[in-house]
Specification:
Strand content: 15-25%
CATH architecture of one domain: 3-Layer(aba) Sandwich
Radius of gyration: 29 Å
Strand order of the largest sheet: 1-2-3-4
Largest sheet: 4 strands, mixed
Structural class: alpha+beta
Number of strands: 6
CATH topology of one domain: Rossmann fold
Length: 222
């Protein structure tokens, strides 16, 4: 459905990235950045790139406008746990983290993207001609029930002690909630039918070799 590349994951401390790492168009940091590491994070941006990170209890968006110029603006006040500080190995040096290299796509990948994009445009035009709107299925919301409690008071000696007591209405609501939970649980156990993948159906109907069809679908079976 989408044309972005397959994601690549690297485990490591982001404050130990190798100095020869390439720069990025978009960076998001999900932990509090200390003021000392602000410039370190900004250097990882390309010119025109955007960095979003929490710093000094403010979620900050930074746009790199030039080699040595940035524009910053605060989005909202936040509270994040701080970044884990780098650890030194036995030699007293940091263990650098290597990121995946940025390689130009080969001709096969570019051809696959173009073919899938063309087929997707055909599908969109067909759906528009039929008046079918492309909408994501709505998520089912659970109904919340408020419980009402009646407090009773019991005399113990000279003291008045409150004691909660469930009313009949509360019991009925508990039974209804239990029935709804059982119903939701039974519905969750039912296997859901996956949505139709029109792009895959269009690819599989083409008069092409099976190996080429598999390549166009990224060798996925669904």
């Amino acid at each position: 459905r989408f044309e972005f590349c397959e994601p690549a994951f690297v485990v490591g401390n982001c404050l130990e990235i190798a100095s020869d790492s390439h720069q990025y168009d978009r960076i998001y940091c999900g932990a509090g950045v200390q003021k000392d590491h602000e410039n370190y994070m900004k250097i990882l941006l390309k010119v025109g790139g955007i960095l979003v990170m929490p710093i000094e209890d403010q979620l900050t968006q930074i746009l790199r406008t030039g080699q040595n110029t940035w524009e910053s603006k605060n989005i909202l006040a936040v509270s994040f746990a701080p970044l884990v500080q780098p650890n030194r190995n036995d030699n007293g040096k940091h263990d650098t983290v290597g990121l995946p290299p940025c390689a130009v796509r080969n001709l096969q990948d570019l051809a696959r993207i173009y073919i899938r994009r063309t087929l997707r445009n055909f599908i969109n035009e067909e759906m528009k001609a039929k008046g079918i709107a492309q909408k994501a299925p709505p998520k089912r919301k659970r109904r919340r029930c408020r419980r009402r409690r009646i407090n009773t008071y019991v005399f113990v000696g000279n003291q008045l002690i409150p004691q909660p007591l469930d009313s009949e209405e509360d019991e009925r609501m508990e039974d209804d909630n239990k029935e709804e939970e059982d119903k939701d649980h039974s519905e969750a156990l039912k296997p859901e039918e996956p949505p139709r993948n029109l792009l895959r159906e269009k690819i599989m109907s083409l008069p092409l070799p099976e190996s080429l069809k598999a390549y166009l679908t990224y060798y996925r079976e669904k």
